[in-house]
Structure formats: structure tokens, C-alpha cells
Amino acid sequence: MITTIKKYSFGAHAPTGAVTAQVEEGDTLPYFSAQSEGRGTRFRCPLEKDDIVYGLGETMRGIDKRGGRYVSFNTDNPHHKQDMPSLYGSHNFIVVDGKKTFGAFFDTPARAVFEIDYGGSGEVNVLCERGVTVYIVEGESAHAVVRRFLRAVGRSYLPPLWAFGFGQSRWGYKDERDIRRIARGYAKAGMPLDYICMDIDYMDRYIDFTVNKKRFPDLKAFVSEMKGKGVRLVPIVDAGIKVEPGDPVYEEGVQKGYFCKNIEGKDFCAAVWPGMTHFPDFLRPEVRAWFGRQYKVYTDAGIEGFWNDMNEPAIFYSEYTKGKTGERSEGDPLYRGNTFLSDYRNFCHNIEGKEVNHWEVHNIFGANMTRASAEGLDALLGGRYLLFSRSSYIGAHRYGGIWTGDNSSCWDHLRQNVRQMPSLNMCGFLYSGADTGGFGGNASRELLLRWLAFSAFTPLFRDHASKGTRPQECFRFRGKKDFRSILSLRYRLLPYIYSEFMKAALSFDMYMQPLAFGYPQDSRARRVEDELLVGGSLLIAPVLEKGAKGRLVYLPEAMTEVRWDGASFRTRQAAAGEHFVKVPLGEVVFYIRKGKLLPVGGAAMHTGECDLSAVTLLGDGEEYEQYLDDGLTRSVSEGNIRLLRRLG
Ligand code: MIG
């Protein structure tokens, strides 16, 4: 029983599965006033002028969430403007850090609105529209609060080592030839690559668990051919099952009653990529087990990695809203992203025999799809697998990672990526990353290089772009040396990145942190939002501006500056304080904290060539605890940590 966390109930709600620890019920909710409103509750907590409010995972704006309004209501909307209230996930955990420091998790599967000092209101104002369990987490610092919370929601999903390699993706690769061309492009350019994602075009008419036979005549042979080159294939799986009489998955789903029902009690029809689809009722254990078993067609072919899409769920229109899509416009109050909100009231789930309208549990739909995939893959595969999802809720971090959806090739979204990473980590999602280079729009060479230089530190490191945008693979650009430099840096850093990720997961800690968590007494560090701590040893300060020759870097203490120029690491001592640091394109500058070490490995063209045990130590520390295993086994423990000592 954890006593530094207490829970308080305000009305009933379907279980979300977020918190796995036993938590005691508290008497009266501290910090917040609570007032019932409609069928839900409004919570208010005054803020001090200097309080920082962290959390909310995948949302827009800053690491400090003050000044914004955030709506937890999973939405497929590619227009990631600063004031966009909802993205694909709902991560209702905040930490207030100031004179009083505490965390609050609003555990509700329904819609919730967070106004954090919105319009200068001077308060946190949270409306939970339905029943909610509020968890209050105590701790002596923001970091301590987060660590307690991470323990309560359970250990992060553990990816295999190859999932820390570089991946290339594009919506539009359609057949074996396209994929071979990508692998060859990287190999010929001397750029490392571990996996290529297969987007919806690999399927037969967008039907899940099928493969287009013309484009991929022998998937198993193709998978093994690519594996021979060190490249794994990672197919996409969408949430909806095409209405397709004769398709065995569709037939079985209908026959066993596994699909969500519409408000008249028939299988709900929603149009997504395949045309009309039914949504598996992922909230039911037997449906999850059934869906998870379907991955066998892929795992039998040797596939060990997947990404889940459209699981908010995104709905282009339904049997109820059909014909209305002509009215699409951003101003339409019914329309969000690609979906009529009213459709989320048009279907139902069956929770322990009770019919529950989707609206009541909207935010846990995608999370349960991820759970279905993970449990299926656990049963089908002997080792770890790559799995990341678009939609999520806290708790889904135990089953897979997430990517941050359809961003664009713009500098703002690179900056947003930097800010999202620590917020996601606070909410459990250690394995995450953005579409490097941007999904929509045309990436410039400069933007892609700067973005790669940041993503080289994020656990999920994938270049992905939309159909219709300019080719975004690294080898398509001029001056390949610069791209080679950054990609090879990632592989040289893998002994560290893998070790720090695994240690963070095993000890319920974050992998990427705001500077404030490492230097809570430093009032300037507390406000820095464009530098991050990566693992226990590193501080990064990515270049985020177009045309910049370098950037201002603030160091809270003296550190070892490391400059990677594509061939070697050059180190020098950097004093505490502010510096302008020159960073030519293709170079990466980062810092090793005082008294810490960084293990770096040798060059590799894919993770199969990495020897994580052969490392050189940089920095002025004495010891480094390296987590080391075969990168695949599920039996992980702190027993796999070895102590490295600096010689001399
Ligand atoms: O409606 O599968 O976010 O990564 O390339 C678009 C096609 C559907 C959205 C995903 C994106 C993916 C795309 N998908």
C-alpha cells in the first residue's frame, strides 16, 4: 500500500486500468475545492505567482502548462497549432511545483478540461464531465512526485534494442520494390537503418491482417531478405475492421458479437480508410484476446514490430453522419480534425455486461487497442517487440510506446517535440518520439538535420512523412555527410541511450527530464524549456531556429562539452552560465554533467552490429552503471547492471 498517494472518488466511472498499485482512500480532497457540475465535478486550486504546473503528456504549448486550456478528448487533428486543445492521447496528470508541491491525476475515461492559469485566472481549474477518481501524490520535489506516480501506474513497456535504432517511414511505400529502394538508399549512402515502416498501402484494400499479394507476393521471404540486411519491417494496424463479407476476421467478429454496437443495437458502421468498418470493442477482455491473436499472420512471417493508428478512433463519417462530409469546415462545431463529434455518441461498448455509450469512455479506446496488441504479441512472440500507438491514455505506457501524430515540417513543431518529451515521460510514456522532419509539409534540409540532431536522443527515432510531401529520407538530400554524421552519432550513443532507458523503466523514473528536475534550486534552470536532461549524465541543447549558426546554452553548473563532428568526439570544459555555442549543420553539441560519465560505442550500420559492451567513457565522473543485456529477453532486472570505472 502506497501512503504518499491517496485517492478520492467523485462519481462512478468505468475502470481505466491506469493505476496498478494499491492506493488508500483519503477522507477529504486536499489542495482542490470540488463542486459538482452537470454529471461531473469541477476542481479548483489556487496557484502562487511562481508555481510551475507540469504534466498533461501529449499536449501543446510549454513544459510549464500555465496559460493554457487543454481538453482531454482523443482527437485526430493534424493542425497542431499552439492553442489546439486536444491531440491523440489523454494524460490527465499534473504536478504543481512551488511553495506547495504535489501531483494530481484525474483518472476518468470521459472528457476533461484543464485550464491552467488560463487567461491569468491564477488557478488550476479542472472540469471532469463524468465520474472521476482523483489521485493526490505527495513528494518533496516535483521529481519525487513524478517518481511516486510512475511507480503507481506501473512499469513502462520495454522495447527491444533494435527499436532504439533509426527507422524510416513514409505514407506511400506500396510494394517490395519501394521498400528495397529505401533500404538500398540508406545502405549505399553509408547511413545506418534498423527498420522500415509499412503504412496502410501494404494491405489488401486497407483490410487489417491482410497483405496485398501483388505487392508482397511472399511476405515471409521478403521479411527474411530484409532482415538479412539488418532491416526489420514494421506494419501499421488500424483500429477498424472493414465490413467485408468473406474476410475471416470480419466474419468471426460479427458472429461472436465482438464489435461496438450502434445506438440501435446493430454493429456500428464507421467509414475510415477501408470504407465502412466496425470497431472491435477493445474494452472487453475476450475481444482484446481475439484481436491480439490476429497478429499471428504477421508474426508467422517473422515480423516483430507494429504501429497502431486511427485508434482515437478517427471516423471520417458514420452511417449517421454520412453525406454530411461536404459540410466539412474547421468552423463547424460538429467537426474536430477528421471526425464528427456526434459520432462518438452513436455507438456503445459492453462493459461487464452493461451497455456504455462510447462518449463516456472515449479516452480509453486507443489504449485498449494497444493493450490488445501487446497481449497478443506477448503470447505470439518469445521476446520483446516494437509497438507504438497514436492514441493513448495513462496505463497504455505499460503496453507500448506512442508517437505524437501528424505534425508538420515546421520549426515550431520541432520545438514542440522538445517540450512534449519530458511531459510524456512524466505520464509514463518513456518510449516516444515525433515524426522527425515533420509529417505534413515539405521539410527543408536544414530543418530535417536539426530535427534529427534532437531526435537522435529520443527513444523512438523515426523519420516519417505524409503522402504528397517531398521525399524525406535522409539519403535523398544533398550533402549526405551531414546526415551520416547525425545518424551515426545515434548508434555511437546506443550503449548509453539503451542503458538509461532501461534503468529509468526499471526504477520508475523518467528518461527525459526538464532541467528543473536536475537543478530544482536554480531559479533560471527551472524556467528553461529548450534544453533537456537525457538520462542521468547528459544535458542537450538542440538548435531550434532556422538559419541559426548555433545557440545560447545555459549551463547550471560546469560541464564537459562534447562536440560530435561526424568522425570524433571532441571534449572541453565549459563553465557554468550562458554561452553562445556554434553548431554547424551536421555537428551535434551536448554536455556531460559534472561527476558523470558517458559510455560511447563504435560505429554500426544497424543494431545487430552494435556491441554495447565495448565502450569508451567520456566525462569527468568516476563510475557509470551500465544496463546491458541481449536487447530482446523479457527477463530484465537490475542484475543486468554492471559498474564501469574510468581508468586513471
Ligand atoms: O488519415 O496511414 O498519423 O502516420 O501515415 C491518415 C496513413 C492515416 C495517420 C497517421 C500517419 C499515417 C497515415 N494515417
Automatic annotation (TrEMBL):
Domain Glycosyl hydrolase family 31 C-terminal: 511-597
Residues of the Glycoside hydrolase family 31 N-terminal domain: 41-114
Xref: InterPro entries: Gal_mutarotase_sf_dom, GH, Glyco_hydro_31_AS, Glyco_hydro_31_C, Glyco_hydro_31_N_dom, Glyco_hydro_31_TIM
Hydrolase keyword on record: yes
Key words, A-Z: Glycosidase, Hydrolase
Domain Glycoside hydrolase family 31 TIM barrel: 157-499
SUPFAM superfamilies: (Trans)glycosidases, Galactose mutarotase-like, Glycosyl hydrolase domain
Superkingdom classification of source: Bacteria
UniProt GO BP: carbohydrate metabolic process
CDD domains in the cross-refs: GH31_glucosidase_II_MalA, GH31_N
Gene Ontology MF annotations: carbohydrate binding; hydrolase activity, hydrolyzing O-glycosyl compounds
Cited PANTHER family: ALPHA-GLUCOSIDASE (PTHR22762), HETEROGLYCAN GLUCOSIDASE 1 (PTHR22762:SF120)
Family that this chain belongs to: Belongs to the glycosyl hydrolase 31 family.
The name this protein goes by in its record: Alpha-glucosidase
Organism: Candidatus Borkfalkia faecavium
